[in-house]
Amino acid sequence: MFIKIIDEKGKYLGLLNFKEAIKKAKKKNLDLIKINDKVKPNIFKLGDYKKHIYNIKKKKKKVNKIKNKEIRLKYNISDNDFFIKKKSILKFIKKKYKVKINIKTINNSDKIEKKINKFFKKKKILFFTKKNKNTIIIETC
After folding, report:
1. Closest CA to 138 of 35, 120, 74
2. Span 112-139, pLDDT tens digits
3. pTM (2 d.p.)
């Protein structure tokens, strides 16, 4: 069975017999790592297997990071301050962050919540709301 071989620097070495590839890897004191088995002939790389696994895990961690931003508001926020907060919320959403808006309320003040809900509906942004005793938490999806 013939396979394609790539050395540790990424240089293509050509088609080799599988046994010859193993001998070449042992000679260089490296492992033979299967890169792609969906194509014929299969592609293998000479390298350190532990380092290869470490790099794969590192890439997965980088991809799985979810970016979150939190904005806190008071129940009696002025219109101009609210306008500035809306701008920053839109900026975060454009950068693909999940935005969490934490509103401190007194005696079920729903005025600010209505403003934010109206704003999100107008911009067609998906969100959900959680209410606690003195806080309202609005999160984007």
Report:
1. 120
2. 667 777 777 776 666 666 766 666 666 6
3. 0.46
CB-based contacts of 75, cutoff 8 Å, min separation 6: 103, 104, 105, 106, 109, 111, 112
pLDDT tens across 6-53, in order? Answer: 988 888 888 988 899 889 889 989 999 998 878 888 899 999 999 999
Residues paired with residue 114 on neighbouring β-strands, in sequence order? none
Q: Which domains, and CATH codes, for the chain?
A: 2-63 (3.10.20.80), 66-140 (3.30.110.10)
At position 35, the amino acid (one-letter code) is I
Residues belonging to the chain: 141
Tokens representing 3 are 């396979």
Q: Which residues contact 16 (CB under 8 A, 6 or more apart)?
A: 2, 3, 5, 24
**DSSP per residue, 84-117:** HHHHHHHHHHHTT-EEEEEEE-SSS--HHHHHHH
| Residue 24, token pair as written in the block | 């070449």
Contact between residue 141 and residue 126 where contact means Cβ atoms under 8 Å apart? yes
